[in-house]
Amino acid sequence: xxxxxxxxxxxxxxxxxxxxxxxxxxxxxxxxxxxxxxxxxxxxxxxxxxxxxxxxxxxxxxxxxxxxxxxxxxxxxxxxxxxxxxxxxxxxxxxxxxxxxxxxxxxxxxxxxxxxxxxxxxxxxxxxxxxxxxxxxxxxxxxxxxxxxxxxxxxxxxxxxxxxxxxxxxxxxx
Length: 174
Hints:
Elements: H1 28-44, H2 51-62, H3 71-81, H4 83-90, H5 104-119, H6 124-138, H7 143-157, H8 166-169
């Protein structure tokens, strides 16, 4: 028995009605979830399908409006382009783990978070907390602990602020 779930289940704004989910109504957490879905599909197709085609299929299949010039698509595209650099950046922080042993979902969450940390637009604590939540939803059991450890060490090594107070100031709307 497979555990297939509708991606709409993972968006806070979804009521799973007949109305399409509008991108403009998505929270930053929803956008990160959407980015994860886009990256997961790209990974599943071994990066042989265009991200625009994946976004269009996801839009049609699940009644979610995904503008091709949205932050979710553009950032997912940048993460895909930088995936080798992101993998190299995480290697020193994997604590006796080889990259090929890390599950796909965990690796995608780490790539997303590392990319976002490097942009320095969102407080590191917010990025790490959001990555932990994505890992809890999509990655292997207890992978969120691994994600937390890797990202915390990465943030400390790169002198990103881990001020807990910044969390309350971020993350409402796109």
